[in-house]
Amino acid sequence: MAERPAAGRLATASIVGTTLEYYDFAVYNMLAALVFNKLFFPSFDPLSGTLLAFSTFAVGYLSRPVGGVIFGHLGDRYGRRFVLVATLLLMGVTTGLMGLLPTYTSAGIASPIMLVVLRFIQGAALGGEWAGAVLLSVEHGDPLRRGRNASWAQMGPSLGTLLATGSIALITWLLSPDEFIAWGWRIPFFASVALVAFGMWIRVGVDETPLFKQIEQQHSKAHAPISEVVRGHWRSLIVGGGVRIGPDVLYSLSVAFSLSYLTTVLGLSRTLALTALSLGGVANAFTIPWFGGLSDRLGRRVVYGAGAVLGLIWMFAFFPLLETKQPALIVLAIVVALTVHAMMYGPQAAFIAEQFPTRVRYAGASLAYTLAGIVGGGIAPMVSTALLQRFGTPIAVSSYAALALLITCVVLFIVRERARDQLD
After folding, report:
1. N or C: which end of the chain has fewer CB within 10 A?
2. pLDDT tens readout for residues 303-317
3. Which ranges carry the Major facilitator superfamily (MFS) profile domain (predicted)?
4. Is residue 24 within 8 Å of 161, Cβ to Cβ?
5. CA-CA distances (angstroms) from residue 400 to 286, 385, 395?
């Protein structure tokens, strides 16, 4: 009974950090889909401007491996807790500065350049944060519940996206379109400062993990974690990255690209699109820990693989439902897509962490997660937009997502189940 409050604080620390950081990330992603084409790339037609805005979206993913390398090294050398506090602070400062950026009208080409630089730093911080949030729960918690424990951190993206969606929906409801473009888009960035302060308070009170303390006492910490992972655990990197590509593409298509598709291509209201994404985010957030717990009982491969197969099928129903322009069917398309994503995302954190030993687990999990993010979610909105421009049909976009999910299916088929293995 004495462990329950500690377990609750650990879960909160895992959730709050990733929630706040993905709130920052999601605010950027949604504004890239809604207004950044006008604010930072105004000399292009709407679809080309959106493509350029999504190019800066990709920068946030391209910089994640940089954060994975830097903070992965620090996490295995100096501890999980140290990195978790540092990355949260860095993300908060960067996002606050985004709210102060001048637009293209007042600063010219310097405006998108500054946007890209801040986006790069933001992505690096997020790339270093994820593994720490996962290991905080995995290395502290019950070894028979690693799937459920690790899934707390996995709720962050959906909760953060939900928080970002709700804040932007509220602002667009309260302000006129002209007011939103003039200054209202800055408000969600500034709100991040208060959220980061709360996250810092929670995380500073969390102790270092027992497994990391153990290797400290045994003087068995890795001196060069990144090179050790690349030399000795490259197969695990491929496995961890391969299972991430499919759900990443599905998530980016369901959240970032669908927002642009509904508002720019189909001409539907932002309110409808954001409402559908909010409901999808609720379904995603509350099913992630359930599927994570289910993977403790049935195995990671079974639950993860079922999600990949269902996602592959649903991608070909997704756009026909959106194109009906019927609110109920649009909500159905997004809710089902994000629930299927939760089937993969719930077991994902534990699955990746289990591929690496404690001495290089932070570096290995960070690299696997962030490198796959580039070829998965990072370029997905940009590739989807380009495919739509080139072929003029969303079937090409669905085929792209299906191919990514097929890669995940293949990796899951050939890898060994480790759900019941002991972590060293």
Report:
1. N
2. 999 999 999 999 999
3. 10-419
4. no
5. 28, 11, 9
Residue-wise pLDDT tens digits, 330-339: 999 999 999 9
The Cα 37–Cα 26 span in angstroms is: 16
- In CATH terms, the superfamily for domain 8-414 is MFS general substrate transporter like domains (1.20.1250.20)
Decide: pTM greater than 0.85.
no
Confidence class of residue 131 from pLDDT cuts 50, 70 and 90?
confident
CA dihedral 193, 134, 377, 124 (to 10 degrees): 50
Of 330, 342, 251, the C-alpha closest to 304 is: 342
Estimate the share of the chain in helix, then strand, then coil, as percent rounded to the nearest 5: 85, 0, 15
Question: Can you tell me the distance from the alpha carbon of 128 to that of 65, in angstroms, rounded to the nearest whole number?
Answer: 8
DSSP state of 409: H
Task: Locate the domains of the chain by residue range.
Answer: 8-414
CB 146 within 8 A of CB 422: no
Tokens representing residue 128 in the block: 């270093």
Burial class of residue 410 in the structure, from the number of CB atoms within 10 Å of its CB (0-12 exposed, 13-18 middle, 19+ buried):
middle
